[in-house]
Amino acid sequence: MLTSGALVATALRGSWRSSPPPLDLPQIEFEQIVPMLMRSGAGALGWWKVKHSSLPLSRRLWNQLRNAHRIYALKSAIRERQLVEILSFCRTLGIDPILIKGWAIARHYPDTGLRPVGDVDLCVPPSRSQELKAAIAAHLSVDCAIDLEHSEISKFGQCNYDDLNEHAIKASIGEVLVKIPCPEDHLRILCLHALKHGVWRPLWLCDVAAAIEIRPTNFDWNRCLGKNQTHAQWIVFTLALAARLLQADVSGTPVVKKLSSLPKWMVTAVLEQWNSCLSPVLPPFTEQLKDSRGVRTVWNLVKSRWPNPIQATVDFDGEFAAGSRLPFQIRHCTQRAWNVVKTAI
Description:
Blueprint: H1 4-11, H2 27-39, H3 43-51, H4 59-92, E1 98-100, H5 102-106, E2 120-123, H6 126-139, E3 146-147, H7 151-154, H8 161-166, E4 169-173, E5 176-180, H9 183-196, H10 202-213, H11 221-225, H12 229-246, H13 264-274, H14 285-290, H15 294-304, H16 309-315, H17 326-344
Parallel strand pairs: 2-3
Antiparallel strand pairs: 1-2, 4-5
């Protein structure tokens, strides 16, 4: 019998396409994973798959998934108005930001209600970041979080802001033009973003799959993969995960030759995350420790923070080899424990 994570992967195969493949799951198994789809922001994609299949579904669950789509569509329309306001505000300061992830990839889905909105992710010149952050806090009132810090660019990216900006393209939000990364840069950013969070959210791998399948015929793989061989391996294996778990079409890509070498532990780690689709972000350890009672409770707190092997490897710039991830995970825990101690001193 398939695990919940494997059922989630099966349910979401091809869900980003205008004509997704049939939902190849029995009703009882699909109903089992509806809570995971809803928690992870993939509820509307689940509805899209059901809509394009003959799977019977209880009225309660059908309405739950359909309402997710309706809510996402409404919030998407609101977000577009917010983006126009945010972009206009930035430009009054002489800053023309690059919009990444979120709306920039959601526009490639066949329906505006299929992908939920999250933070507004803007990339701006590093020298203007703190100024813009202060100006937004003081003068701009929009009901959404604006994120200006992106380690997938500053830490792992092959290019700096100027290079990203030079190759950026423009898209329309209503009558307003906005810069977004070129397809090569955006696919790299989407992959690195998913990896640094341990790919706990299946939606992020759907984003990667969508970006692969809509890439232009002149897509420059050398630019996408970059010169850092470790990071290039990360990107290729992320695309391989999208192909293996979600049946993304990777024909004509460097991934084809690497599918057989995708480490088994990576697939296992992602599916284990998808068994619950719970965010790995937890309250500060010191806060929970104050309310803990007994050794067992403390041990459970420590266990709940055992790092995902993908995230631990990425945090220490390691390769996705076939060997054990334990050294990376121990190092990750040791560093976090030391940070807790430093805070307490």
